[in-house]
Design brief:
The chain is α/β, with parallel strands linked by helices and about 350 residues long. The chain has helices at about 15-35, 55-65, 85-95, 110-115, 125-140, 175-185, 200-215, 235-255, 280-285, 290-305, 320-335; strands spanning about 1-5, 40, 70-75, 100-105, 145, 150-155, 170-175, 190-195, 225-230, 260-265, 265-270, 290, 310-315. It is built from eleven helices and 13 strands. Helix 3 (about 85-95) crosses helix 5, helix 7 packs parallel to helix 10 (about 290-305) and helix 8 crosses helix 9. The radius of gyration is 19 Å and the shape is globular.
Amino acid sequence: MDIGTFLLMQSPSARPSHEIFARGIELAQAAESLGFRNAWLGEHHFSTYGYLSRPVQLATYIAAKTTRLRVGTAVIVVPLHHPLVIAEEIATLDLLSGGRVDIGLGRGYQHYEFARFGQELEAARARWDESIDIIMKAFEGKPFTHEGKHFQLPETSLYPQPLQKPHPPIWVTAQSPYAIEATVRRGFNVLTGGFGISVAMLAEFGTLMKRVVDQVKPARLPSVGVQRAVYVTKSEADAREAAEQARWNMRVTLSLRHNYEQVVGGCAVPVPAQNEPSIDELLENHLVIGTPQTVIRQIKRIQDVVGITHFNCSFWIGDMDQARVLKSMELFSQEVMPAFA
């Protein structure tokens, strides 16, 4: 199982942008030195929920500052961009990184973001399907045309072409039956998890994934990755405080996803949801936080219910300071990672 780390680049206390980016770069470099395989970068806009609006741009910089670490997007919000620009940026990143790229693509989920780009979230599916068709045609390395509802392209050739052939590994965020089937049929890998997703929901996803794979019978079994908030500590009190930090992420994620968000002056406000889980329930069913032994148990539990090939650690949660994040990553590398070698 590959193990990577994820950078949302959030700041509940609205820290300066240069500080947030410096932290992200330091954590990516630490991930390489500690033996993590990937650094995945999210895309978000217009709030302190995530400062990173151009993940490919930062991935290019991180690739230049590392030698072995694979860089990835988790995810590029495809409907917010022209598909040819996405294809060009992916190819450029792949070349400049020496082929150390994984690309995560997604439809997006925030009405808040889409509205500020003059788009409707409800129209994202149609734009998504057509955009993926164009990106895949562009990576074939020959002239192509496209006549669709959203895009009409005369004969077009993509330069540059990516280094990895036929293109970098592509991952798609998928949890619904429609999205999973479409992803598997295209031969893409699958990403799931994140804040607000319980182990029971992951188990349902794993069952659904198996059923779709059995039906579609793809030529290549897709890789499957799960993202989780992770914090490793020797102290139970420290673990419980970290769970409260993660609650900020969960509250903002769910409010943005379900369109009841509060963003005041650009600052994302953690809006409590109805029937929120207790700290004990968060620790048992939503987070991978605790002693090394607890973290190993929780990851193995996810392996059992989903059958993952990749585990994606979101170490930087809430307003946790950099020293705590780095110490957690070190403990994970020393005492957790060997269990999954």
